[in-house]
Amino acid sequence: MIYVRDKGRLCNNILQYGHVYAWGREHGRQTVSMRFAYKYQFFRICHTRHHHFLNYFLAKTAARWGLLPVATFDTPDEDTSRQEQLMLSHRHIVAEGWYARWYDLFLKYKHEIVDLFAFDQKVKTRPDALMASLPACDIRLGVHVRRGDYKTWQGGRYFYDDGQYIGIIRQFVRLHPQQKVQVFVCGNDPSLDRKAFADQLPQAQLCFPDGTPGEDLYLLSQCDWLIGPPSTFTLVAAMYRDVPLYWVKDPALAFTTADFDRFDNLFRRIV
Fold first, then answer.
1. Is the pTM above the cut of 0.85?
2. Alpha carbon separation from 83 to 1, 152, 188, 215, 270 (Å, rounded)
3. 183 in helix, strand or coil?
4. Cα four-point dihedral sign 150, 151, 156, 158
């Protein structure tokens, strides 16, 4: 068994585990996500046979006391043959690190990874009811307002204010002048100025879902287009239904629909 010791937040964990799961499938090895054994209980994987708190606790304790070997992937673009041989030569082992990446294998088993992270019905209930209650539209746009840790991450490079997000949404709406655009604004900033959004975007049907991370992720995955700063959250949301995604790297730049990309390309560009 390969026990995957995840790091970071929800969607980082999904991607990291997905890579190791795909490697394990290719080499006939079972895997367990230590994070989804006890946390982020939104998905089918959390209810599978080996995903429970006892497995997490035993693997964590055994690794801490040196009873389980650990394969660490903490260097970008390194030759991972030594770590892979370590995983092949031990029946039970912990794999950790953000740079455990096998892109081609991930895509080969992507349908299985998506199935493992299928949303529980309890996560889908509120977003489904919300979407059903809204007026009919032609396009659903999901916008991820990422604040919080982005104020300091990479020196605040992707920390955008309300006015910048409003301008980005306005650009998208102008790209679809003959269509009714419904905009779901999801994020982690309680100080978001909703009135400013409503006042400055009268041509859009705005909705602020106020969901849990699992509910927001599911709702974004059901949209037709996605926009947000570079983040694994929008990336994973795009993965489920191959939704086109525009990562905003400069909010002052004009964009068109040609600037949107797909998961299979974008997931190779995360750092």
1. yes
2. 15, 32, 36, 36, 21
3. strand
4. positive
